[in-house]
Amino acid sequence: MGSEKRRLVAHLMRRAGFGATSDDLDALDGLDYDRIVDDLVDPPDTSWMGDHLVRRFHHEQSGMISGFAPGEYWLYRMVTTKAPLIEKATLFWHGIFATGYPKVVHGKVLSNQIDMFRRNGLGRLDDLLVELSKDPAMIVWLDNEYNHSGAINENYGRELLELFSMGVGNYSEDDIKEAARAFTGWTIGNTEYMVLRSDRDSDWPYGRIAWHFEFKEEDHDNGEKTFLGETGNFNGNDIVEIVCRQEATARFISRHMYSFFVADEPPVAQWPHVKLRDPAAIQELVDAYLAGNHSIKEMLRTLFKSDFFKSSQVRYKRVKSPAELTAGVLRLSGHLDRPRRDMVVHGMRVQYMGQWLQNPPSVEGWHQGEEWVETGNLVERVNFASEQLGDTNMPGVASMVSRIVDQSVSKDELLERCLEELGEIELAEDTSDSLKEALSGGPVDRDKATEVLRLIAATRDFQRC
Amino acid sequence: MTLTRPTQVIRYERTLGMTVMIGKGFYAPNDMSFAPNGRIYVLNRSIEARASGQGMRVTVCDANDEYYGFFGAFGTGRGEFMWPSAIAVGLDGKVFVADEHLQKIMIFSSEGDFIDEWGTAGSGPGELDTPSGIAIDGEGNLLVSDTYNHRIQVFTSEGEFVRTFGKEGVGEGELNMPWRLSIGPDSNIYVADWGNDRVSIFTQDGEFVDSFGDSGTGEGQFTKPADVVADGNGNIYVCDWGNERVQVLDSNGGFRQLTLGESTVSPWAQNFLDVNVEEGDARSRANLEMDDIEFPDPNDRHIVSAHIEKYFWAPMALAISPDNRLYVTESNRHRIQIFEILE
After folding, report:
1. Are B105 and B118 spatial neighbours (Cβ–Cβ below 8 Å)?
2. Is A65 in contact with B148 (Cβ distance < 8 A)?
3. Rounded to an integer, what distance in angstroms lies between the CA atom of residue B233 and that of residue A303?
4. Neighbours of B261 (CB within 10 A)
5. For the packed helices A296-305 and A279-291, what is the interaxial angle rounded to 10 degrees?
6. Which residues of A touch B197 (CB under 8 A)?
7. Is the peptide bond before A205 cis (omega within 30 degrees of 0)?
8. What is the structure's pLDDT at B48?
9. Taking CA atoms, what residue in A is nearest to B180?
10. With contact defined as beta carbons under 8 Å apart, do A1 and A416 qualify?
11. Least confident piece of the model among A108-117, A402-411, B13-22
12. Mutate which of A204, A341, A350 to test chain B, going by most B C-beta atoms within 10 A?
């Protein structure tokens, strides 16, 4: 087993990214922990496989005509990026600002929204929420194209406060109405034609036409509004600015962040009724938000450097989401060393595990944590991980197996070496004992090493991070 | 490379096709070829089939918007497609289709009946790793862009290996993931050297002749070119895929013209809009050529083309018709823009 520092870095890479290979950890050995965190939040290299290579072979991921392509394209980025926190933060925001295909019916605009999270996901919350309010997919998802001066549609105003920033109990129904008034006239260009095509799932005559934000001044209610105790001729920008100044917003985002990056919290709907797992940790994040001018990056820097994050008490306390599990396994297996048609299959496996990216079950997003694990999708999760990591045709697996066998590892050392190769995975004692017992017979050779990798991938511990 | 003053060499004329998986139209078309019988064979990659594989086929039509039907289907069996990548019709009317996932070349009759297929995965002589472009020479041999082997291979129509040329690199005569290729009126072989952002020209024997272009978005520069064809007037047309445009060069590589595309509504599309009155009316009230959209990166031509329908979006293949028109096949817009060649 590697040093405590190596295991801590492995923990960091599982949470801030999608896990680290043994080679990744070797490369980080010479850096101190805080420097590794700093490089994650301010990545010096954001390269990945690249748009051109993906689009050359996956024409569907170029035109995004279907609801499958955006998620598959995103999976490529998760698996091949050198800046994993950007993708992880993007996944974090997608879970909160969940927007889905069945109503938008436009893969390209959903993918553009994910790009927007990529650009703004580590910046100031104010900027992110303004961009979210202008995001064409969000506008249609929450009906803001029907929010008119003199005839408001409250849907976006309500969700902005309830699900995207403050949480129930921190605003009134009047605040919702006033927020909705401020967002009147925030719509998409060519509204009638684009919404009609969306309603009909029309890709005629020439494929999807991407949507763009349009402010219709003549449809904007420029009158005086009173919102969260402040009065003025507010527009959407003003509403976001006021929202982001609220401590309730800092607490709401902090709890989401804790749940996603540290340890599972219950679904948002239960928050008013369930105590915080770690109130001191939330306060630390709230303070970072307020001191850092609402910077998400500074919150995450604080989080990853905190004692509550480094604690062994929170390791393996989160159940990996299907996207996290799949991306992590594919990083280890090395299967996506080039664009491969099998991406279609990988994308479907994520769906079978219960997470169709850009198609959440509702505006609330997915219920995460233990709810990812149900009988059917647990089988899918275990089968996927063990198939990939038990296949020596995968370049990453072949490389791991060679390193293990070439080092003439003894039977007693085999399990530990395999755990190291898989990124310093730690097993519960009973799991470890069971595996050792099951692996006691036969010589240590390529087949045996492969079998151990496959069995580790099937353990309860591997499903967590 | 010598830059010369822009000249109008081509002029937009009209558009062929529309988006459909079934019947009269195309779905993510990625290549086309003219046949001796006057018909046009359009290869449709379609979406990456998960079950039915609908739309993955060859559409047969002509330049006068006549639709003759289709052939081919999704699958891993003989004569079936997974990632169909290129199409070429021989002088005898036989239709050759490459599949860059299944590593094979399929042969169909002009009526679409499957005849045979050949191809072996690998990197040795005569083996293929991702065949992404095909052309047929005057002797009926097939020239194949062997993408990940970074070379061009020549086979007889029955699949017997003849010769190979090119290897991975950036030097003269070297290639980096070549995509499509064509044979010019000078009998030279024109290759879209995708990874090197240039086009390279070889003799029939594989001797390097010249190369044009470098990386960039300026005139005479390319970003991942997908195809290149030459006409009898000394013009070279480059499908500048990564820049979402087509450029025209002179025979020395000098810049002559570029176009971003200017599609209008094709007869097939107009028929759809006439029948679907509500959608046609809503379209007539929309402004699809807005030039004031605020893009996160206005230099990202892929995003701009996603918003402006008349522009090329994923142009992937070029062909010159017997009546001297340039056909530009666009995958993401499911159509072919046709340009008259003026000089």
Report:
1. yes
2. no
3. 66
4. 23
5. 140
6. none
7. yes
8. 86
9. A56
10. yes
11. A402-411
12. A204
User: What tens digit of pLDDT does each residue of A32-62 get?
Assistant: 999 999 999 999 999 999 999 999 999 999 9
Q: Which residues contact A132 (CB under 8 A, 6 or more apart)?
A: A97, A116, A138, A164
Distance from CA of A108 to the nearest CA of B (A): 8
How many residues are present in chain B? Answer: 343
Q: Yes or no: say if B152 and B178 are a contact pair by the CB < 8 Å rule.
A: yes
Token pair, residue A119, equals 């650009």
Secondary element (H or E) of residue A108: helix A107-120
Cβ–Cβ < 8 Å for B101, B93 = no
When CB atoms are compared, the residue of B19, B224, B303 closest to A206 is B19
Cross-chain Cβ contact A115/B45 below 8 Å: no
Give me A425's structure tokens: 């995975």
Q: Say how far apart CA A54 and CA A61 lie, in whole Å.
A: 7
pLDDT of residue B4 exceeding 70: no
Q: Using a CB-CB distance cutoff of 8 angstroms, which residues of chain B are in contact with residue A55?
A: 302, 314
Return d(Cα A422, Cα A399) in angstroms, integer.
11
Structure tokens at B160: 């017997």
Handedness of CA B191, B193, B197, B203 (dihedral sign): negative
ipTM of model: 0.96
Instruction: Tell me whether residues B50 and A68 touch, CB distance under 8 A.
Output: yes
Tracing tokens 């379209």 back to the chain, one arrives at B283
